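Sample entry (188 residues):
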Amino acid sequence: MSLPGQKGIMGIDNVADEIIREAEKKAKAIAEEGDNIKNQTLDESRKKIKAEKGRIDRDMAETFEAIRIREMMKAKMSVKESILTQKKNLIDSCFDAAAEKIKGDVLQKLFETGKKSIEPEVVYVNSGDAEKAKKLFRGVSVKEKDIKGGIILESKDGKETIDMSLERLTEMARTKALKDVSKILFGD
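Predicted structure, serialized as tokens:
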């Protein structure tokens, strides 16, 4: 026997159960959708991280290669600079040796050559040649100057000079012969 109003309670229980089942079904669907979104977001993040890591790896490799090339070029330039310095020093020593060989008895020849261009009043020589010059060049003033050798002639008015110092003559010869000397010494 059923009590009055009991049928109504059972109907409410059935409705409540149905609502709960629907709510659980929706909650399960929402949870599954949330898991799908979470998994999709994670997959996208992993792909982005992998792509960014690849880009960073490429950038680092390019940077390291650029540094390696730059350092290699610096080393090559340093070696070339060292070789050029050594070549220059060798050429300088050749010219210095040649200058020492011709230094001897050239004072008179240089004086005669210079007199063709100006009438000298003063002859400058190095301190080692001063006594010799005073004997050779009578009638002109002989003064000492800080030169390796040779002479510098100065006109009476002091406006004209002829520099035939060993340094100047060597520099002129060097300018004319540098290419040939370099070719002979180094085959360049």
